[in-house]
Design brief:
The complex is a heterodimer of chains A (267) and B (296). With 267 residues, chain A is an alpha/beta fold. Chain A has eleven helices and ten strands. In chain A, the strands form two sheets. In chain A, strands 6-7-8-3-9-10 form a six-stranded mixed sheet, sandwiched between helices. In chain A, strands 2-1-4-5 form a four-stranded antiparallel sheet, with helices on one face. Chain A is globular and about 45 Å long. Chain A starts with 7 loop residues before the first strand and ends in a 6-residue tail after the last helix. In chain B, strand 1 and strand 2 form a beta hairpin. Chain B is globular, with a radius of gyration of 20 Å. The relative contact order of chain B is 0.18. The model of chain B has no long low-confidence stretch (mean pLDDT 86). Classes of the chains: A alpha/beta (267), B mainly alpha (296). The interface between A and B is medium-sized, with 40 and 26 residues.
Amino acid sequence: MNEQGPLLSIAGIEVMYSRLALVLRGLSLSVPRGGIVALLGANGAGKTTTMKAVANLLRSERGEVTRGAIHYDGARIDGLDASDLARRGLSLVMEGRHAFGTLSVEDNLKVGAFSRRDRAVGDSLDMVYRYFPRLKDRRHQAAGLLSGGEQQMCVIGRALMARPRMILLDEPSMGLAPLLVEEIFSIMRQLNAEEGMTFLLAEQNASVALRYATYGYLVESGRVVREGPAAALAADPEIRASYLGLDASAEPGGATLAARRRPRWLS
Amino acid sequence: MSDFSFFLEVVVGGLLSGVMYTLVALGFVLIFKASGVFNFAQGAMVLFAALTFVGFLEFGLPMWAAFLLALAAMLVLAVAIERTVLRPLVGQDHMILFMATIGLSIFLEGFAQLIWGTRVRGLDLGISDEPVEIAGILVSQFDLSAAVMAAVLVAVLSAFFSYTKIGRALRAVADDTQAAQVAGVPLGFIWAVVWGAAGFIALVAGLVWGARLGVQFALTLVALKALPVMILGGFNSIAGAIVAGLVIGVSEKLAEIYLGPFVGGGIENWFPYALAIAVLLIRPAGLFGAARIARV
């Protein structure tokens, strides 16, 4: 495979739902090997749709990629079955956690290893318990009875069980207390440093995401409107005003960048 | 004979016929659990399985060979259904899948009779229907054997679901389909496994009911007996199907014996449905069709 190119590249994809709602309008981004890339944007900007397009989950929601291409590790992946990606080392942690509530924590983790044919599944289980010791204490409990933070750990652990090279992390901070958010993000950074895992992180919480990511893309109405190194984005006055809530002059609710830059009738 | 031992005899007879209802209901529950689809074609699968088994017997094959071949046919059928009916309908509304199973049932009924003919055939499993006396109660040998077969089947299935890798993946799909796909579980494969298991159940049900009623078109109606069982037990609970099958079996026999005389008899046939309607009014999810585990 092409060792130099990006691990994941999305080139100008359009996504349509039910053949009429155009949700992504030519979105492009790329994620380098070993990077942590943040995908920022407000509710409804298209972050989750981007993640689902990569994970090939759109078909079961009557959506499809109508233009553009998605390459992972040098091979085109749009059009594969969602379950093929785990074997190729690409795992999605879905928005809203999606733990198997009726299964025990350990069964949740073991399902994550379904695509593996090797015998080292036990080692991976140990690794997950090392990163998330709380899961080990609760491994025989039904995952539906865990707290929100523990469920998030459970689904990240489940993704790790497939021994991925890249994890798509969709809104891991949703509905979690700030301390837990920090805990989960620092584990992500640890996995990135120690296991060399690549992350694409979709977040509404831009201030946290930009502290942990190396590079960021800002999405509005289905296209990328700004990109750059995380530090540069965090320092950008317009982003500070609209997404980080750090500018005293920002209007409440925060207008989007597009609305600020051009008159409404052009957008 | 004392009143009490007569009562016991009715109860035991009811339990044993309840097991046969459970057998049919299990096929429905399996598919409903894994894909949320009410498989209207389960009755047609029972007919197809029984006809195939008898057809192979008529070629002069021994019973075990006919059983294995019929089982293989059901597994092939499951894979074919997944490829041609379910896969193109991924992501569609449950109602559309349900209608697809109606079409499937019509196809299967015709296809089975096209291959094997429409003649009513007897099926002799070599188990006598003579009652034997156990602890002073007369019990039908055939019903007893059917109950044992059903119990073994349930034990095998629940072990499969609880302890195997595929069983675990199956429970994951039943719990959250998308998340299971993302975790690397191929949906098509799981559906083929589920329909294969439902085919296996249909074969066993077809043998037991076919030996009772003769292998004929009316076997598809046996599926109707599963409806009150599922309403009572809950559509997605295997334990519910077992308990409800027994409850239905016992209650219809007791009602026939003890209530029947007051209304002129013949209530065995509709009593389960009346019971099902009562359950719908009081507990729509059924006895065991509990809501999902959720933290409040």
